[in-house]
Fold these 3 entries.
Entry 1:
Amino acid sequence: MMIGSDDLDKLEAEQFHGFVCFPEGNPKVTLGWSTHSKLVEAINSELTFFKSELNKEVYFHEHEYLIYEDYFIWWFSFFEKDPLIKNQVASELERKINDVLRAFPDAADKEFVRTDQPDFLPDPDFLMHYFSIVEGADLELKSREAPKEKSYEKESVDISLFDSPMSVVAFKAVINNYFQNSTEENLSYFAAEDGFFSTRRPENKLLREELLPIYYMKKIKAADDEILSFGLKADIFDLKISQADGLTKEILEITWALPEGDHKLLSLVAQVGSGFLPVKNRANFKKMSDSLGEKIVSAINGKHKKQYPDQRSLLVVIPQDYTYQGDESLIQETITQVQQSLVGGKRKFEKIYLLCGNRFYTVY
């Protein structure tokens, strides 16, 4: 929805937005994850001053400016009705953010830009981007529970199918029934808040997690006559692949690396559709995406603590939502961070893989 200049003036009167541009690309990649993490930590440390000393919450959020390829913007927003107080807080925020940027050689050329100054004269495309932030900025979406009553027609997967070993070709047939055909029934199943991506129904969670081995089997080129065993009832493995003669070919552990609050994201995204999350939700989303590397390390370390009686590989799964839908350079930088942070490397695992969407990456 477009807003007029009068409406914009009213909205701007009670909110402030400043920004720092990264036209060269995602700062996680261009700065490197180590420098990026230290820079974000320094900024967040300064932002605590505003909350503790000025009783003012400053929201730090990130946007990809889609008009230009690989153009990223860090936004800093707060809300204040008193114009004098707003200007004082904005001036202090400008000073502190610029001081932090200058303390980092790779970011010293960046500058905090205030949108409330006369020299802020953006081009029409950037102005539209700015409007999208101002409009509804003071809202905060709350996650809502998925419907208790099933809202889609797709028949739930029969969990008992995975109780017994099955051939690769039989497994593919079960999985493809849900994912290969773009029928209205399947599309509705994926879009429903209680559907494929929801934790509301255990059979959907199972299907979501058991879908992963099909990508793994493509990776290792499993033959159709090989046999799959799923460790659903006995916590001894997640997947075992055996040759037709019964010899074990591969044993796989599967774990997810999820930022805190990930289970709420589906509901929030469903509420905005193709629009932007409001400022407060966006600031929380940045914290979630910034924590992804740490969550991967934590997930691997959690598996390292277990004692396994045999040789196996580990598959760590991450959602695309926190990687700008699987941005290749961002994932590679994340893997570098994990490799630098993980003490002991792969240890007892034969290999450690990362899966994002349907793409595999080797961590070790």
Entry 2:
Amino acid sequence: MPKGVTDMNMQPVLEIIIDTIKNDYKDDIAIFVIMGSHLYQETHSKSDLDMYYIPKTKRGYDLASVFIIDGIGFDLWPISWERIEKIAKHEERIGSIVSEGRVVYYSSDDDLKRFNEMRALANDQSNPGHFIYRSRNQIKTVYQDLYFLDQASSISEVRYYAIQVIYGLTFALALLNQITIKRGRAKLLSEILNMPFVPDAFEEHYLKIFNSKDIKTIQEAIHHLVSSTQTLINDRWYTLIDHSFKDEAQGFYEELINNYNKIERAYHVNDKITSLYAAAEIDHEIDDIISHRGVSLDGLPNLLEAYDPSDLSKIYKRSREHQQKLVEILTLNHVKINVISDLEELKTFLNSRKGE
């Protein structure tokens, strides 16, 4: 073991790196940060030192390097200010490197101030709706890995894609709860269970992934985790959003009507491709705006079921029924539909919106 480097003592390594920055890169590196287990004093003989730095110049990137001391890997990782800002905005799941990282070197007061502004941004919880919106988008990213998980034929493939799904799910949960994942891996389950909002039976199904040797058991556990997390996010979204369904659906039909028109046009020119696309888009929009708001869709006919590539009259007829029923549902729920009969009425309508 090199002189000065002992179990759970990375101070000599830190000092060498910081001295190198001060002596050779003082105008090229803005911030140097450490993170991970050494911050929480939970290290062991093979604990690595997690760290990164923010370059100020192109030359600052020259310090980037990887090396091994006594069997422990080190990564001097450069991250640009632009990426730090994205991480602080929770566009990546590694938000804790900004919110929790410890600054052990800074080039100037302005650099430290800028970093602290990024830290404040990462810790800002003033807009829960923003976090839930990001959570809803994040969980969508797991479905690609979920597909590959279902196609997997070996236990190694299943385990690989199961972990990928867990990464995405836990990031979505962290966003939902406005909390960054600080530790991960062995500590991840306890972090999740200590969050305010946790999916149903999360611990039970999470542990199956690590305890089971059976492909089907792991696949089913992952599907439960995805389903219960999706349900929780949807429930929180519709609980938190202040807008009533009436407000949320305002303008919905005025845009959607064009899809019905596309189905009609597709029928007349025998365009089966546009017909199916337009019908699927109608279902998607209804699912996004209406289906989770507690609004009854009873009587709304199944549009995609009527698609017959050899006879587009079926889906065209169904689309007319569907359109009529959707208008009835919206009207019943007091959603105003702006139908303008002529140009004079259009002028009046636009003028009436002044000052809104």
Entry 3:
Amino acid sequence: MIRFLPILALLFILASCSENKDCCVIIEPVEDNRIDLWSGEDTLLSLPGDLKAYTVSSDEEEVAGIEVTEEGILISAENFGATIVHASDGANQLFAWTVHSKIIRGDWAIMEGYGPYKNSVIVEAEDADFAAGLREELLKGIARHYYFRFMPYVNTRTFQLDSARFIQLSAGTPLSLYRRGYFSFSDLTLVLDNLDQEKETYQIIPYKDRSILGLLQDLTDYYRDLHPDKGIRKVTLIRHLKEHLPPG
């Protein structure tokens, strides 16, 4: 007879992974059998027994995939939605998890940054004075306070994402509209389309605290084109968003 074991009775680890292995964190299931992941995020499960004995499947592979690796059971969140993934050793162990592949939504605010969430700017160039000046300028820029409201619209008939809009507000009393546009969120990448400006692309850095997101922006090519005589090698920014309800 197949025996169902409660997930919390197992000694397994959930490790969140991405291409940037330095950002791997440990996450806990929200419920006994629920796992929340950002779209594009991976989680590694260590289950009891011989991993080679397990067979795995996903009810909706376009939402989340599952596979057996040498390190453990790998769950990969793909497109927005929810699905159930299964693992069985063919004998007396059968497991199932509900995986929610999430995109950013609701109200978020730019954080000042502290501890592991410290904002940073890296500028590397042959012209050292230029690099120092640009770094100082960019540090002031990422310290500005903004609020974002992300509004993905999900079709209630198909449960598919039809559109995703955002507005950005400048901090103050009262809040003022800074810009608006569309956004996309997939493969741990956030793209803001400001309609009248160039698109902004951010690589998502996930953390154990799911109410905080790191945003890595690579501006190397942009500043190389703007200052071709400065010998620019690298320009990257890391800022952080925290889930937040704006005042007023």
